[in-house]
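Supplementary Note 3. Input sequence used for the single-chain structure prediction.
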Amino acid sequence: MLASSIVVIDMGVAALPVDDDYPAGHGRFETLSAFLVGVIRAAGGVMICYQSLQAIGASHAPSGPSAVAALLVASILRGVMASWKFRVGRKIRSSALVADAWNDAVDILSAVAALTAVDLAMYEPGRFLVADHYGGFVVGIVVVITGLRVVKGASSELVDAMPPTGLSAQVIPVARTVPSVLGIDTMFVRKTGLQ
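The predicted structure, written as discrete structure tokens, is reproduced below.
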């Protein structure tokens, strides 16, 4: 919820018009929110790993059918949300919305891993009671990797890395149509927000 709230707030700020303080617009706030979502994901993954390892050896009752139902409902809802965010985020080229979609997709993976661990623990508690802790650790690793992937992509945008060559190749013919352009020696392309 924290990550999604950051995305909603920063996308609103990114849509603000150009002003004296931001002559190039507020688009970088959208990229900044993607970066923050990645950092939150990675930090959350580290905490999941830590908590899962700390709980190994602790005695507790196995989870019940209500845990299975909650995980199934969460997976379905996150699947719908992730699908919509990926589609819209890619369409409008929003790194923040795509980062939040990855957030949802990892939650689905996490729920599947947790569901497997809960099922094992319910099936044979004496033998598989710690399965949910090991499953949690695996989920934490996946969350960390996904968070770092989002941070890497947002960092590239923040430091003005060149976009894929396909986009750059599309810019050259458009630039040649400008009447005063005689030739193109060097081209720099930069992404700011959705532009």
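The chain has seven helices and no strands. The chain has one domain: 2-176.
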